[in-house]
Amino acid sequence: MTFNEFLHQRFLGNDVLAYLTCALILLLGYGFKTLLSRLLSHLLFKFIGEKTEGVSEAQFEALLVKPLGVLVFLITIFLAFQVLDYPVRNSELAGDEPWPKLLAFRIYQIGVISATAWVAARLVDFATLVFRRRAETQPSRLTSQLLPFAKDLLKAFIYIAAFLVILGKVFGVNVTALIGGLGIGGLAVAFAAKETLENLIASFTIFLDQPFAVGDLVEVGGVSGTVEKVGFRSTRLRTAEKSFVTVPNRSMIDKPLDNLSLRTARRVSFTLALSHTTTSEQLRRIVAEAQQLIQEHPLTTPEVQIKFSALTPAAKEITVQYFVETTNYDEYLNVKEDVNYRLVETVEHQGGTFASVGTTVVQITNPLRGLESGPG
Asked: For 266-349, CATH number?
C-alpha cells in the first residue's frame, strides 16, 4: 500500500488525510492562539488607542489575551472539524442524529457564547479603568462610587444576555415568549426575592441621595468603618480592626447613619482629677493656663470649656472639652497627645498633683472620745 493510498483510506466516513488535516489545524490553533489573541488585542487597541486616557496597551492586553485566546481556539476547533463531517450544522441536527454528535455541538455553542460574553465583560473592565483614570484628573465623590456599581451592572446585563442567547440558540427556547409569560410567575419570584429587590432599590437611593461615598467613614447599626464598595445588594465596610463587614443596602438607608467623614471637627472630652493637696489658687492658674494653651493650638477651635466641675472625696475634678479641626483620625490622635502633654506640664508648672487612682479617703474620729467619761 502506497502512502497516497494510506492517506485515502476511510474510517468512520472520513479518510486519513481529513483526520490529519483536522489534527494539524487543531495543533496550529492551540500553538498560535496566544499569538493570535495578542495580535487581535493589538489591532483593537490601535483602533481605540486615542481614547484610553493613558491606560497602557499592556493593561489592555492583560485583560483580553485569555478570553480572546479561548475564543480563537474555539473558532479553530470549528474550522478543524469542518474538514470532517463533524460537527454538523444546525440545519442537519434532526431527531435521528446520534446523541454524542448533538451533545458535542451543544457544548461547542455554549463555549463560543460564553467566551464572547467573557470578552465583552473584559471590555467593560477596560472601559471602567479608562473612566477611573479620567476621574483621577477630575475627582468626584459620585464618580468613585458610581464606577464599580456601573461595572457590575453592565457585567450582569452581559451575562444575562448570554444566558438568554444560550437558551434561544442552543436549546431552542422561545425567549420572547418566556419573558412575556413571566406574569404570575414573575410576581411569585418578586415576592420570593423581596429583600434582594429592596436592597437593589436601596442602592439606587444611595446613588441619588448620596448620604455617603466610597472612602467615607460611617457608623450605622452599631457598625463603623470605611466604605470600600457599594454593590447591588450590600455595602462593604472596613472597620478599625481591619475586618470586612457587609451591610445590606436597605440597612444603610433605613437606620440612622452617621457620616463621620463629614464632621467639621472631632470632640475631645475628659476629666482631670487633681489631688486635694492642690490649692484653690493653683486650680485657678491651672484652669486659666490650660484654657489659653488649648485655644492657641493651631488645630483646635475657639470653643474650649475648662471648668472646676466637681469636688469629690477622692479628687478635685476639672472638666476639659474642646474640638479638633480635622477629619483625619491619625491627626486627631496627634493633637490629643500634644494637648495632653501640655496639660501635664501645666499642672506640674503650677505645683499641682494628680489624684491617685483608686484612692480611698477614710475619716478617723477621736479614738479617746468614748474613754473621756471613764468606765460606767
From this structure: 3.30.70.100
